[in-house]
Design a protein that fits this description.
Layout (H helix, E strand, L loop, with lengths): L3 E2 L7 E7 L11 H16 L3 E6 L2 H13 L7 E5 L7 H4 L2 E5 L2 E6 L17 H9 L3 E3 L1 E2 L2 E2 L8 E2 L4 E5 H5 L12 H12 L3 E5 L16 E5 L2 E6 L8 H12 L10 E6 L5 E2 L2 E2 L8 E2 L3 E6 L5 H11 L4 E6 L10 H4 L1 E4 L1
Parallel strand pairs: 2-3, 3-4, 6-7, 11-12, 14-15, 19-20
Antiparallel strand pairs: 1-5, 2-21, 5-6, 8-9, 10-11, 13-14, 16-17, 18-19
């Protein structure tokens, strides 16, 4: 039986899947600002590769075209897809594209609103719509006769067989349980069958304020086959300090799939962001790797330039560009959460 492989994000991409925001409830009070922030996000991607852009209907498509043209965005690289959705978080509701003997296959990991929200019935159709648009076969992910619920934001891979995830997201006994009763061994069997993973590294907890309850893409990211960046908090009084130190300790003891020691680069956290009484899950780890560029969320913070310099050293062959996410983070996610790469 042919084995699947989940390509690393830095491997050649055909484009990036996005969904233009239409649910103002995800950014209460900031929706008009969010639309322009999203236009800038699209503009940065479209300068380097295709944007597969979901819009809920033709009216929104026309509006978005006008916004893009006002911002001097060429529509040549924009491919519109009509599909009603509940939200715009394509990392989690979109399909994960893997390869079998060099051919692409879309996986449907049965998004269910992070096992938290009730309105996700429109989002569940996104994998089928995208697979049909790209003319790819779609595989329903299941295990022991049951559908498996996983989100792309919970999975970080190096393309060679190592995956990093968190216990808080996948194994918590009482909060946002995606798959009742599944153990580490069960998940690792799923990762092996559907993603070609031979080695899994388990971190413990996510950052404070994370609506997904522990997604890895706010914590730790591969920057090449044997190197990760991981966020650390310097303020010992901060609620993130202890859990991020625990993750750092685990990473320093970790190996890759071939037994090599994992190289670990520390990335700062931005200073605490509070809006309307809530602590927001701002993280520099939520960057998006493109073919020639890395887009990094920044937050009008003194640590912005430190994070950008660290990531520039990690990606010497790519431009590293900071993109303001001080408004986007009010939706509890930024660049990586909103996007999903489509490998060539």
């Amino acid at each position: 039986m042919a084995s699947r492989r989940f390509p690393a994000e830095w491997e050649p991409q055909e484009g990036i899947l996005l969904c233009f925001p239409h649910n103002g409830n995800d950014w209460p009070g900031k929706y008009s600002t969010i639309q322009w922030a999203f236009v800038e996000f699209i503009k940065k991607i479209a300068a380097y590769e295709k944007v597969f852009l979901i819009v809920k209907d033709t009216d929104l498509q026309d509006k978005v075209k006008n916004l893009l043209q006002m911002a001097s965005v060429s529509l040549e690289n924009i491919h519109f897809i009509i599909q009603k959705t509940n939200r715009s978080w394509m990392r989690d509701s979109g399909p994960i594209i893997v390869k079998i003997d060099g051919k692409r296959e879309a996986l449907n990991f049965n998004f269910n609103g992070w096992a938290k929200y009730k309105n996700w019935q429109l989002d569940k159709h996104v994998p089928k719509t995208i697979s049909e648009f790209l003319e790819l076969p779609l595989t329903q992910v299941s295990y022991k006769g049951k559908h498996v619920v996983l989100e792309g934001g919970a999975l970080e891979v190096n393309g060679k067989g190592t995956l990093i995830t968190s216990e808080e997201c996948l194994l918590h006994p009482s909060i946002q349980i995606r798959n009742i009763g599944l153990t580490k061994q069960d998940y690792e069997a799923i990762f092996k069958e559907y993603l070609g993973i031979s080695h899994t590294i388990w971190l413990k907890d996510g950052i404070v304020g994370d609506d997904t309850h522990g997604h890895i893409d706010d914590l730790c990211r591969f920057v090449n086959e044997d190197t990760v960046v991981t966020v650390v908090e310097r303020d010992v009084e901060d609620d993130n300090y202890a859990p991020l130190q625990e993750n750092l300790k685990r990473l320093k003891k970790s190996k890759t799939e071939d037994g090599s020691t994992l190289k670990v680069v520390e990335l700062p956290m931005p200073n605490k962001i509070i809006f309307d009484g809530l602590r927001l899950p701002a993280s520099y780890a939520n960057f998006l790797i493109l073919n020639q560029t890395v887009l990094v969320p920044v937050f009008n913070d003194s640590n912005d330039r430190i994070a950008l310099n660290i990531l520039a050293d990690c990606f010497p062959d790519r431009k590293v560009i900071g993109l303001s996410c001080i408004d986007l983070i009010w939706g509890f996610g930024t660049l990586h959460c909103l996007s999903q790469q489509i490998p060539v």
